[in-house]
Design goal:
Elements (H helix, E strand, L loop, with lengths): L1 H8 L7 E5 L7 H9 L16 E7 L7 E6 L8 E4 L1 H17 L8 E7 L5 E5 L9
Parallel strand pairs: 1-6, 2-5
Antiparallel strand pairs: 2-6, 3-4, 3-5
Length: 137
């Protein structure tokens, strides 16, 4: 209802709630975010999957019948970036990027940025971070 008041009555974009998702490795951080979006968009696996932050802005757009995605990032292969991608293309690009970082045995502080427009989301922002790994010894 808040989004409707802002958009239809005040003719302004609705406010955004921001969530930074932190936790231990393999604790379900990416899965929580995907539940809000109703779509698999980030790599989900046992062990280390997310190797760079995924900064996702959700925008409610009731005119859309299918989600529309914009994906970018300083370290993202330019051939995988775009402003009119499907959720399948985004999932493939994010998975490939994280797997490439994994093959190099590294993490990155440079985020991938995703704008996710859909009729079934509220205006909100998520930052999905790589998991915390406990050092032994």
């Amino acid at each position: 209802k808040i989004n409707k008041v802002y958009q239809e009555t005040l003719h302004r974009p609705a406010p955004f709630v921001s969530f930074v998702i932190c936790g231990m490795q393999s604790s379900g951080k990416s899965t929580v975010m995907e539940r809000f979006l109703n779509a698999p968009l980030n790599i989900v696996q046992e062990g280390t999957g997310t190797r760079c932050p995924l900064d996702t802005t959700c925008i409610h757009d009731r005119s859309l019948t299918e989600p529309r995605c914009e994906l970018g990032g300083e370290e993202l292969d330019p051939s995988k970036a775009g402003d009119s991608l499907t959720t399948e293309q985004v999932f493939a690009a994010i998975t490939a990027h994280n797997k490439e970082l994994g093959e190099q045995d590294k993490f990155s502080t440079k985020p991938l940025t995703l704008v996710y427009r859909a009729s079934n989301v509220q205006n909100m922002r998520f930052v999905d971070t790589p998991g915390i790994i406990a050092n032994q010894g």
